[in-house]
Design brief:
The protein is an alpha+beta fold. It has a single domain (2-97), classed as Beta Polymerase, domain 2 (2-Layer Sandwich), CATH 3.30.460. It is 34% helix and 27% strand. It has a four-stranded antiparallel sheet, covered by helices on one side. A hairpin with a 3-residue loop joins strand 2 and strand 3 (54-61). The two termini are 13 Å apart. The model has no long low-confidence stretch (mean pLDDT 93).
Amino acid sequence: MSIIVVGLNHKSAPIEVREKLAFNPNSINNALSLFSQKYQDQNAEIVILSTCNRVELYISSQDGAIKVEDVFSFLADFHKIEPNTFSPYMYHYNDDRA
């Protein structure tokens, strides 16, 4: 089992970027469903934390099947924005650091 955390917050990203990645209650449900469908074969699970100051995704997968780049791609597809819009502001941690 591998765990990663990918996110941004008020210290790492301006509000304009945080707003583009923010989830509301309805969009969180949609994102959870889409993620589960997309990564069903990797036996992946996700938790999304979205507040006014941060967005974080906590992901577990088998043997590191889900990479940070996969999460960036998922966020870009879901929010319909280019990854380079937000990737410079993101932080990520793996396994013990997560």
